[in-house]
Write a structure and sequence with these properties.
- With 405 residues, this protein is mainly alpha-helical.
- It has 2 domains: 56 residues, no CATH class; 324 residues, Na+/H+ antiporter like fold (Up-down Bundle).
- The protein is 78% helix and 1% strand.
- It is built from 19 helices and 2 strands.
- Strands 1-2 form a two-stranded antiparallel sheet.
- Strand 1 and strand 2 form a beta hairpin.
- The protein is globular.
- The termini are far apart.
Length: 405
Amino acid sequence: MDHMVLEVGLAIALIALAGLLSNKLRFSVIPFYILIGMAVGPHSIQIWHFDFRFIESTPLIEFMGRIGVLFLLFYLGLEFSVGRLIKSGKSIAVGGTIYIGINFTLGLVFGWAAGFALQETLVVAGITTISSSAIVAKVLVDLKRTANPETEMILGIIMFEDVFLAVYISILSGLVLSGSTSVGGVIVSALIALGFMLALLLIGRKAVPLLNKALNIRSNELFGLVIFASLFLVAGFSETIHVAEAIGALLVGLVLAETEHMKRIEKLILPFRDFFGAIFFFSFGLTIDPTTLGGAVGLSIAAVVVTLIGNFAAGMFAGRSAGLSPKASVNIGLTIVSRGEFSIIMANIAKAGGLLAIIQPFAALYVLILAIVGPLLTKESKLIYKLVGRFFKWDKKTSNAESTT
């Protein structure tokens, strides 16, 4: 514990250097944070008092990273609106079903084609289906797309994924860890998760006048304590009923976005979002040991190709089902292509259940590639839309539709 502060300081210095480099090269900062985390860790070296292995401080850095996810999703909720989300409830349900249906089916087919047994195939399908809410939140905010028409569908799919995740983890844990699962328990778990999210949104919207009065606090210190307490209590409670803590944070942000104090809360949260968010991506890199990835390269690249195709198709179908333009639909598929924390959870279940050892390096490399490629594809979505649009002749169809109206 003697060098804990020094190790954390070293981690922050490395994160800052990665950020400066990405800024110089004008690339998305997320891959740089992850790669610098990968470059150090248990497999690294110690130079005098500077321990690049981060053995003592890893648990603290991981916890700070978890806080970063909460701030990222909370801020994203603030940038949005409960009203818009509720109005789009039906289209979100349809879009979420399309997204999960396409990606999960492709994941099952991929696992079967790769020659995995049933349990490994189910794990692989889980790894390739769920997108990273933290990376999605970071990309939307960095690219200033929170007000875009497709953002409500993106947020809706993220929440829909969480309900699916609550059900799927219950099934997968039962099959892999104990060899059985209770249908009744799975149904109850799903209903509790869905009911909690809907109740928090509806009650929160009705309670806006009360929240306006309760948050009318002159002291910035007390105001910050109340906001932080609300965020951590709801996020922490969410996890106890099998709703991801990140989704709990998103819901709190959506509710508080309806209040007249939204701008003040946003100003308060901004520096915490940036600081702890950067630590999350660094801590994520720390969990990936590059020395173990070699045997999973071909499998991971094949899975990435399948995911890119599936995400593009799912984004197009989900967006068009909601009446969004082809451009907005392309943005959906590209924005939520990144995989992250939830995929690693799936791989950890496989490890705990004693499944094939290749699952761990496969998941790590697959997640790393998409965590790097996803933000870059999202940033270049206009160029991708133009290139794909030439094949589908979207511009001609749009101009023809406009000329007939």
